[in-house]
Amino acid sequence: MTKRPTLFSLILSMPLLVWQLMFFLSPLLFLVTISFWTVRNFQMQPDLSFANWGRILTRGVFWDAYLRTMVLATAAAAITSMIAFPASYAISFKMSEKAKRWIIFVLIIPFFTSYLVRVYSLQVFLSDAGVVNAALGYLGLGPFSMLNNAFGIIVGMITLTLPLVILLQTFSLNFVNRDLIEAAQNLRCGRLRTVFAVIVPSAKVGLVIAALFAFILSFGDFVSPLYLGGGNPPTLSIMITDITKSGQQWPRAAVVAIMMIITLLTVAFAAITYAYRERGK
Amino acid sequence: MKVNAEMEQQSDPIVKFGNVVKRFGDFTAVEKASFEIGRGEFLAIMGSSGCGKTTTLRMLAGLEDPSEGTIYLDGEKVNGKATWDRDTPMVWQSLALFPFLTVQENVEFALKMRGVGKEERRQRAEKWLEKMQITEFAGRNINQLSGGQKQRVALARALVTEPKILLLDEPLSALDAHLKVRMQSVLSNLQKDLGITFVYVTHSMSEAFSMADRVVIMSRGKIEQIGTPEEIYHEPYNRFVAEFLGSANIFDGKILGPADTGGWQIAYDGGETVLPQNELPDAHPGQTVTFIVSAENMRLSLPGSDQSGIEASVVGEEFIGGTAMVFLETTTGQELKVQKSHDELSLLNLHAGSRVVVHWAPESCHVLIGENV
Amino acid sequence: MGNENRIINGLLKLHIAFCLLFIFAPIAGSFVFSLNSDRFPSLPLGEFSTEWYRLIWEDSLVWQGFANTLVVGVTVAIIATLLGFGGAYTDFRYNFIGKSFYLALALLPPTIPVVILGLAMLAFLSRVNLSGSTISVIIAHGVMCSPFAMAIIRLRLSQMDPDLEAASWNMGGNQWQTLCFVIIPFAKPAIFAALFITMAVSFDEFAVAWFVSGLNETLPVKILGFLQGQVSPRINAIGSLAFLSSMTLIILAQLLLRSPEETKS
């Protein structure tokens, strides 16, 4: 049904389209453009040079950071998913409707409260003389070094993604047909086995999407790597800020940014294809 | 309560419910249910929604635990035994086929859970796919099958372990009328071939009566009657069953005394009639009695003929195949229904508002025993 | 079976408690540390003190940042909710070629890392001479917040009986009247929720602001400045206030979104 758009429909639909074209798509396309520009005397000059691409993509430093970011984000997504699943399972299957609504209510809050301040607070918790080590000290353990290393970064990323992952997993588990679970148990499938044979496959799409979101957020995160990981060695996000601050090398930062977006798109595409793949012809 | 004598005496029933009660919080879903199911029997549990029929089935499957009473399955008390430790496969109303598995994998599921080897699993699944005539869909995704095909997959999946009993929870309710009738005969034949017990929950009288050896009628958690379809149809135990079946007129009367022609003379709201002696063996004058006359046994005459009976006026009529159901209202406001052939009705030339006289033979009357105790 | 069940359920509940503790400890910690006399809080905690609140109260830069945050937050909330409402209604009512492109453009910004978005916007806005102003922060936040507004309002519209609109047209209401007297009243809770949530997102979104804004720093940018310099419990004090404001907004938004059936039970 393609009718000529009315004035009414245009007034409602166009502002968002124009805004996002001008201020979302254009900047991203502009980023692609400047990746081919050159910098002279701290000034960007329009150009069609592949020098930036060559310079970044042949650097070991870049690929080290790339691999590090990949590993950190993958680990964060996997660990968050595994921590979240028993909680989501319990919320979805063991709680009353009222308790369910309350816990969803509570979990939405941290998603919109400043991540930066939470990470700052975590710094106080995790430092060598911080709260966690002091508490462990009473038990005769530690102190453990929990800051300026991968542990700190991943803890930060989990803080960022855990509420969202629990929420997404819970929603997908809520949609699992309860009859399927009973049918499996009726056919001799034990309780734990039912979780893996029926619940996980049924909720596959939601579980994969939840892990994907955790990956995307962690992959682009630069707060945790900077404040809990010490910023060195850098992840890709930190590399972007470093390059930007030192000598106006924006074109090179753009190359790193584009590589990140390509990676995210590839991972998202692969994850979604995997999530929706069906068995049988 | 009337219980089929033959079944009652079966020495080794496969299922035995003893005073089973199921409560959910304050709500009692099943109240003191006691009955037995024979080996190789096709038993239907029938009632309207919320009557406790599905809860009864789920307790048998081990999906709910009874609050009180005992359930014996194949001679063993199964209270508290998890569903995965029982051999009571069920066919769900929603079918509950696993959408993330292929048809073949669905059928193999129960075997896999029992640790049956891959090759044997395949062979046994294929045998059932063939039996249910769905071999060609083995590799398909569940979502690509039609309603009837899914039904067959669900049956194959439940039967692949060759259980002694199969539970079915309104499995045909999602099918259209034509397919429903076809699946009914598939189920009937399957049950006869396999010789195993089927317990079939339904709200549909036609499904229950056309397939089952015996029918359990439930309402509000209580069992109202157990019997063969014929017994239930001709001798409903109480008012509930008579109303549920829907084809009989119910009268409340009082015994006046012995009738001149034998039997009892009864007065009811609108007239008098005679009830045969054998319907009320130990009655006494003054006793109240509730009896029914089925719609097809009612007779109609035009006023002015010397036939005595209840005077009523026509409210409307409804066609039921080769016959019609005429709805009447007596002068005292009671509603009656009379089933007649179209030929017979055309002779009477009835229309809305026509006045008629309704009467019946004494032997058409049946006393509702459950109402007179 | 019953016993085993109870143990499993107990363990699962314990796990949920652990997750909540993990999620909320930093937030609670921030409040505790902000009221603690120690420069660098650890166990055992120091004395109770409101010193850090006094310090930020007297800091004019904090006030300036707070004022900027508020101006930006309110403006962004209004713009993003207007844009989001239009987008949500467009998705609800119309089918057109390129709709998936429209939706992708409308909803994708939150999936792009803020660092990249910030970099791209700063480069682009400085090219069109918009960088360094409050306007640029508002533009950037508008991009990031409108998807949230759109999602919330779209969800509400999907709960509406589509015949309501047709009934209004049928009774002679034109499109604009129907919008004003049927759609907007129906979507009102979601519209307010969208205002609150986008304001909260704007409050919290510092990275883009950090890149984009020059002189007019918003509060989170100020926090970032603190963080890079020194460890100061003043951050905890500011952070606690930021938490309080966003939590209030989010709780209000969620209360608005609870459907009447839910609140009854």
CATH fold-level label of the largest domain in chain B = Rossmann fold
Radius of gyration of chain B: 25 Å
| CATH architectural category of chain A | Orthogonal Bundle
Shape of chain A: globular
- What is the CATH superfamily of chain A? MetI-like
- Main beta-sheet strand count, sense and barrel state of chain B: 6 strands, mixed
CATH class of the largest domain in chain B: Alpha Beta
> What is the architecture of the largest domain in chain B at the second tier of CATH?
3-Layer(aba) Sandwich
Strand content of chain B: 25-35%
Q: State the distance separating the first and last CA atoms of chain A.
A: 32 Å
Distance from first to last alpha carbon of chain B:
11 Å
Secondary-structure element order of chain B, as H and E?
Answer: HEEEHEEEHHHEHEHEEHHEEEEEEEEHEE
Helix percent band of chain B? 25-40%
Number of DSSP-assigned strands of chain A:
2
Briefly summarize what is shown.
The complex is a heterotrimer of chains A (281), B (373) and C (265). Chain B is 26% helix and 33% strand. Chain B is of the alpha+beta class and 373 residues long.
Report on the architecture of this protein.
Chain A is an all-alpha fold and 281 residues long. Chain A is built from 13 helices and two strands, in the order αββαααααααααααα. Chain A has helices at 7-34, 51-57, 60-94, 97-111, 115-126, 131-138, 150-174, 178-186, 191-202, 204-220, 223-227, 236-245, 250-276, and strands at residues 38-40, 43-45. Chain A is globular, with a radius of gyration of 23 Å. Chain B is an alpha+beta fold and 373 residues long. Chain B is built from ten helices and 20 strands. Chain B has helices at residues 5-8, 53-61, 103-113, 118-131, 147-159, 177-194, 205-211, 229-234, 239-245, 342-348, and strands at 15-24, 27-37, 42-46, 68-73, 76-77, 90-91, 165-169, 197-202, 214-219, 222-227, 248-258, 264-268, 271-275, 288-294, 299-301, 310-320, 323-330, 335-341, 355-359, 365-367. In chain B, strands 6-7-8-3-9-10 form a six-stranded mixed β-sheet, with helices on both faces. In chain B, strands 13-12-11-14-20 form a five-stranded antiparallel β-sheet. The termini of chain B are close together. Chain C is built from twelve helices and no strands. Chain C has a single domain (60-264), classed as Orthogonal Bundle (MetI-like fold). Chain C is globular, with a radius of gyration of 23 Å. The model of chain C is unreliable at 211-216 and 261-265 (pLDDT under 50). Chain C has helices at residues 2-34, 51-57, 60-93, 99-107, 114-127, 134-157, 163-170, 175-204, 207-212, 219-229, 233-257, 260-264.
